Amino acid sequence: MEMSMEVKFSGDCDRESHLYSSRVTPSCHRGFHGLYIFSLQHKSHELFQKSGVYKFLFHMDETSCKNYEKEVTVLASAEVGRWQLVGYDKNEHLRVRVGSCFPPLEVACYDIYGNLIPFPSTPKVNLQFKMGEGMLICVKKTKAGLSADKRTLRIKDILIESGDLDVIRPNYEGTMLLCPPDESLSISIPCKVIPGHVRRVLAHPSMQSIQMLPGCIVQELKLEMFDAYGNHALKGSEVLLKVEGFSIKDQMGKKHKVMCFPRFPVVDHDGFVHLSGMLKVTAGFNQN
């Protein structure tokens, strides 16, 4: 006569699901006969690794024996397996402008079997932005705190300040490394940190070296654009240029005193705006 066993599982969501079922006939083990022996090892499932309640249901057909039910509660392991970012699309880069804060990051903690577990306390976190081969920028200005149930670590005010973004242009992609001080765990987050707005401009050649005669066309002039940290401006950045003592011709031959890009040449991939042949001196002698 066969006996059947069904195993059901319910976790945090309390919804019960079927895990495994089996039927066996009586057998002998160590001199004992009439034993129903069920194997709990099967390639289709891994019992007792996921925390929750496992319910075992035993049943025999065509018998007066009552069904038997046994529950086994499995707790998560205390051994931390990994940290993982919550609510984050791995296929997208986090994007921020240098000198601005990243959106808050939320981190969850899992045991070695993949069960969500609470943080015992607010952990110290090291953040570094990795650019290219081996160049690291330490992120010092952060705040971290735990949620009410201690299952989520929220890190905010993540500010990146650097004047070395030219190293990773033109795509400005790098990796944010998040880990505890002992570096026993780590999270790698693809990021894109772009230059800030234009704050400093250098003329090439310098304006003092250009021959300023009324009616002359400035044959060679390019402006090198930098943000507040010394990074070259982002390719394609819009620039508002106001000129005094010059008129400027657009591609249609019209003259302007104020030129707004991108109707005209914009910041190129090297961080320059090219004005060669576009400026005409209109100021008279001894005028600025």
TrEMBL record:
Superkingdom, taxonomy of origin: Eukaryota
Lineage, uppermost ranks: Eukaryota, Viridiplantae, Streptophyta, Embryophyta, Tracheophyta
Name listed for the protein in its UniProt record: Uncharacterized protein
PANTHER family: EN/SPM-LIKE TRANSPOSON-RELATED, EN_SPM-LIKE TRANSPOSON-RELATED
Organism: Eucalyptus grandis (Flooded gum)
